[in-house]
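Structure (tokenized):
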């Protein structure tokens, strides 16, 4: 085994991780695993359209114990899934950093001879784009960059992003569309729009897999000291949660809750929520890993930047969960008295340390549930769970439950013979029925129209 991997895994047995995203990006991660991680097994979970999100959520919830961890092929997809569910399994995601966009700029200029001074771009903030142009010596006014601000939580995200890039290209001929989403990239190319895809390099993927292995290792430790975090929204006299503007109050609370749950996902914490307080339960090892040994607390910064409020936070240690909770409340009250937007760590009644701010769960969204569990369908039909999931994703994508065998074979990338074998098993188990027939092409036997009931 590679010595650097042994360092991160501590000799762990083979671990199974889910790889969630577009098939092209899944294959890149799989290649890295095959070449460098003999103790990892990657299980592909394909998703390339927002209409497949809920089915993927259901799949992950049902098979939470089948995976030791999850890696997402992009931050947007990670945020969307984190928005829909809370998992106790470690999650990591590939991010779009400055080096990726710098590489795209160099490739566009040196290899393709394109003009990088006119672009449309998603997956980056306007500030990041400005900083990268500045690094190349461009000042404002010397380039035109349209940065997407489309809401990533809409089911029409893919269509909205394609329309955004196409619209800019039509009004600015010659502009390059830069995207971090493979499906958007392929649709733009199909429409003749110059497009470049942001791709993580092999070393970056390796580092993310190392991070995931470390998180898995911490989770697997049999002896882990419980740590409790108590958080309270800092309120002033002019604006509080009893304001007459109920819509604004609800919207602001949702934003704060979103950031709290994102942080809880990072530290694999259970959350107990009240009107303006949050209690998070995690372990010492995981919390120290995610906070640079309790030197930085990113939740303080994110709440301050993305909402109109700040948080007072207390972190409590103790021999028992009750003692840890009591110490967390003491730390939170101390932070509140000191003006908020800070955190106090309470190890015991005599030892207290301060952390400063260095650095939406959808309340009305139906969680949804599977009409039939994947595992139950698989056991009854003899079709693999992954193929059941893929079939349900195709149904979500096209919003229909009727197909021909040929249509399904094309979507699966299978031969018609192997597709028919799968359909036959599902039909014998009662999950597929023939509801009609149609002739495809000018001649030939009619093709059966199948209704899928999963």
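Design, position by position:
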């Amino acid at each position: 085994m590679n010595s650097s991997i042994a360092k991160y895994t501590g000799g762990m047995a083979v671990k199974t991780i889910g790889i969630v995203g577009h098939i092209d990006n899944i294959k890149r991660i799989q290649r890295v695993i095959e070449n460098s991680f003999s103790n990892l097994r990657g299980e592909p979970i394909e998703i390339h359209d927002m209409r497949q999100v809920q089915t993927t959520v259901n799949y992950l919830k049902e098979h939470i114990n089948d995976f030791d961890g999850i890696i997402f092929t992009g931050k947007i997809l990670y945020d969307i899934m984190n928005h829909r569910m809370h998992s106790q399994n470690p999650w990591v995601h590939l991010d779009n950093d400055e080096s990726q966009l710098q590489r795209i700029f160099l490739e566009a200029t040196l290899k393709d001879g394109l003009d990088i001074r006119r672009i449309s771009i998603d997956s980056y903030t306007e500030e990041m784009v400005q900083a990268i142009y500045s690094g190349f010596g461009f000042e404002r006014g010397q380039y035109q960059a349209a940065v997407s601000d489309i809401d990533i939580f809409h089911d029409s995200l893919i269509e909205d992003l394609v329309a955004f890039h196409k619209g800019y290209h039509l009004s600015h001929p010659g502009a390059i569309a830069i995207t971090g989403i493979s499906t958007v990239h392929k649709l733009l190319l199909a429409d003749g729009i110059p497009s470049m895809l942001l791709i993580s390099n092999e070393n970056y993927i390796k580092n993310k897999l190392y991070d995931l292995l470390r998180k898995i290792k911490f989770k697997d430790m049999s002896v882990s000291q419980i740590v409790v975090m108590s958080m309270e929204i800092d309120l002033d006299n002019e604006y509080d949660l009893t304001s007459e503007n109920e819509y604004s109050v609800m919207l602001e609370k949702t934003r704060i809750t979103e950031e709290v749950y994102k942080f809880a996902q990072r530290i694999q914490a259970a959350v107990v929520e009240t009107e303006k307080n949050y209690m998070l339960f995690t372990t010492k090892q995981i919390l120290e890993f995610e906070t640079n040994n309790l030197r930085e607390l990113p939740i303080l910064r994110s709440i301050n930047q993305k909402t109109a409020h700040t948080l007072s936070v207390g972190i409590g240690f103790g021999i028992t969960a009750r003692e840890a909770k009591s110490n967390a409340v003491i730390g939170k009250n101390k932070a509140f008295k000191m003006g908020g937007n800070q955190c106090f760590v309470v190890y015991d009644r005599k030892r207290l340390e301060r952390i400063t701010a260095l650095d939406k769960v959808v309340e009305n969204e139906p969680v949804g549930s599977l009409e039939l569990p994947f595992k139950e369908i698989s056991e009854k039909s003899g079709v693999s769970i992954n193929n059941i999931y893929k079939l349900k994703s195709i149904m979500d994508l096209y919003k229909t439950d009727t197909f021909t065998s040929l249509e399904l074979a094309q979507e699966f990338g299978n031969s018609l013979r192997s597709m028919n074998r799968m359909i036959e098993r599902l039909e014998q188990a009662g999950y597929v029925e023939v509801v009609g027939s149609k002739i495809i092409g000018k001649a030939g036997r009619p093709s059966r129209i199948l209704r899928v009931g999963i």
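Reviewer-requested clarification: The longest strand covers residues 226-234. The chain has four domains: 1-93+201-220, 98-197, 222-363, 374-452.
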